[in-house]
Design goal:
Blueprint lengths: L2 H7 E4 L11 H12 L6 H14 L20 H12 L6 E5 L7 H15 L4 E5 L5 H4 L4 E6 L2 E7 L3 H7 L10 H9 L7 H23 L23 H18 L1 H21 L10 H17 L2 H5 L6 H9 L5 H13 L1 H17 L5 H29 L2 H17 L15 H5 L2 H14 L14 H7 L5 H7 L7 H28 L2
Parallel strand pairs: 1-2, 2-3
Antiparallel strand pairs: 4-5
Helix pairs in contact: 2-3, 4-5, 10-15, 11-16, 12-17, 12-20, 15-23, 16-17, 17-18, 17-20, 17-23, 20-22, 20-23
Length: about 525
């Protein structure tokens, strides 16, 4: 049997239970059923399967309870463990491997978990568990037992015969001592004995087990004619890419909506920053004396789309990263579907917050604006915020660690900001730094906002024909709006070029992020 065939016939429940904490138990099972079921289910069939699993795993009473996380407790550890089992048996696997199913549980919870697994064996499934220190009640529910010591099989056979085996080896079970306690002592290294004594004891037990197997092999058939179970010839994923995208988007949007404290914090941050910055440009006019202030207004609009939204966007993956790795390994969805669905759902907030910021800035600056100017200013800020988020998310995927990404990102962004046209005009940039200006999205955003406000503006107040040489030197050529644009080393005809470059940058970072994230998940 190949590894691929084994993967299709079995399911694996890992020791650590990781889930999306904002979802309820029923929502978690429903999401898993939509993506893992080998058959296309209608709504009635889906709910029937989910309810059946809830009853089977004794989770019905907490079906509408949020799963919670390590920092936000909700479900008990036993309930989380049973939820993990329920998610894995959705595909009805003949074999279920469980790594430390009782780890971290008290004796009662351990018994409840093993009891739930025992129930699965009555339905014809084979359940294989690794347990380091089983209690008596847990041990008594085992049919077959394998004991390992120093990488060797010390015993493999019916659990009821293990006492007789150790008695045959010369280690009979004492009175008033449970079987698991006894054989764990026998095959474990004692602190007071030498390494040689321990090795000799293990060799004796292993040899006795091999002798017992040879004796049994002469009296039992190999069942070589047993018909193997047909292995389904299925694709890697049960659902199409677009179905994966839709279900993940819905889950991510639900998760985002329920993180209201985070959304409220971002809203307050946006309001405070926009009011503070808007106050710096309060009642600004299109006048010669305010032209330097307008340059600050335009550039800070570009800069704040990055400062407000870039760092929060970088953290979007890391909280759920273990869940994504596990779900990908379970063939629930492709990394590209997750990345695009998650970033799309997360980007909804970055359509709203830039609008709030832009509205406050425009209202407080009191610049002469039209529907044309308002629309372009909003669209430019939205595109810049989405581009900033795409940059942060792609760096998070490439760096693989939040701290590393937050360290590397300024190294890329700060030089591009310096050559964005505000600190130094395009004409004054040394030739060896021009490539940085060509790829600076700060420059294209700054240019676009300047063009939008001044391309149709006529004569600028305070810039008469009788301006002195000193005034022209300090204020630049400001006689008209197009002249002011020209003085900034910008071109009026470049507006749609600016849009195109910003969109191209957004697309580039999105594609790079998909590739980097897919590579990282596949090698995890």
């Amino acid at each position: 049997m190949t590894p691929t065939e084994m993967k299709r016939l079995s399911a694996y429940v890992q020791q650590d239970d990781v889930f999306i904490g904002m979802l309820t138990v029923k929502e978690t099972l429903r999401f898993a059923a939509k993506l893992r079921s080998p058959f296309k289910l209608d709504k009635v069939e889906l709910e029937s399967i989910v309810d059946e699993l809830l009853v089977m795993m004794s989770l019905k009473k907490c079906e509408n309870t949020k799963v919670g996380s390590m920092t936000e407790k909700s479900l008990s550890r036993g309930e989380r463990k049973r939820l993990a089992f329920a998610c894995e048996i959705l595909t009805d696997p003949p074999i279920l491997f469980c790594d430390e199913p009782t780890s971290g549980l008290d004796s009662f919870m351990s018994h409840q978990v093993i009891k739930a697994l025992r129930q699965l064996t009555y339905e014809g499934k084979t359940v294989v568990c690794t347990i380091h220190q089983p209690s008596t009640s847990v041990y008594q529910m085992a049919d077959q037992l394998i004991l390992l010591s120093q990488g060797h099989i010390a015993y493999a056979g019916p659990a009821k015969q293990v006492d007789a085996f150790f008695g045959r080896c010369g280690y009979p079970i004492p009175k008033f001592v449970s079987s698991p306690d006894h054989f764990m002592r026998v095959i474990s290294h004692k602190s007071f004995e030498s390494e040689e004594e321990y090795n000799n004891r293990i060799v004796k037990i292993v040899n006795e087990h091999e002798t017992m197997l040879k004796e049994k092999s002469g009296h039992s058939s190999t069942h070589s004619s047993r018909r193997e179970q047909a292995i389904p010839d299925a694709d890697s994923f049960s659902r199409t890419w677009w179905c994966q995208f839709y279900y993940i988007f819905h889950r991510s949007a639900t998760q985002l909506y329920r993180e209201r404290a985070v959304l409220m914090t971002k809203l307050i941050q946006t309001l405070i920053m926009s009011v503070m910055i808007g106050g710096c440009y309060f009642q600004m006019q299109i006048h010669r004396d305010y032209l330097p202030s307008f340059k600050g207004f335009a550039f800070v609009s570009v800069q704040m789309m990055h400062m407000l939204f870039m760092m929060p966007a970088m953290t979007v993956f890391w909280k759920d990263y273990p869940v994504v790795v596990r779900e990908f390994q379970a063939n629930m969805y492709s990394p590209s579907a997750y990345y695009l669905a998650k970033t799309t759902a997360d980007s909804v907030q970055y359509l709203v917050f830039p609008v709030i910021f832009s509205a406050i800035m425009l209202g407080m600056a009191n610049l002469p604006y039209t529907i044309y100017i308002i629309t372009h200013y909003l669209v430019i800020n939205i595109l810049l915020s989405l581009n900033a988020c795409s940059i942060a998310q792609s760096f998070a995927a490439m760096c693989g660690h939040l701290a590393t990404g937050m360290t590397v990102l300024p190294i890329v962004c700060v030089p591009l900001m310096v050559f964005g046209g505000f600190m130094i005009t395009y004409d004054a940039i040394p030739w060896y730094f021009l490539p940085l200006a060509w790829i600076s999205w700060y420059k294209y955003g700054f240019e676009a906002i300047t063009i939008v406000f001044f391309e149709s503006h006529g004569k600028i107040d305070g810039c008469g024909d009788n301006s002195t040489v000193v005034e022209m030197s300090s204020q630049g050529n400001c006689s008209t709006g197009p002249a002011f644009i020209k003085d900034q080393a910008f071109e009026v005809s470049n507006l749609w070029i600016d849009y195109t470059v910003i969109l191209a940058a957004l697309l580039f970072w999105k594609i790079l992020g998909v590739l980097a994230f897919s590579w990282r998940i596949r090698r995890a």
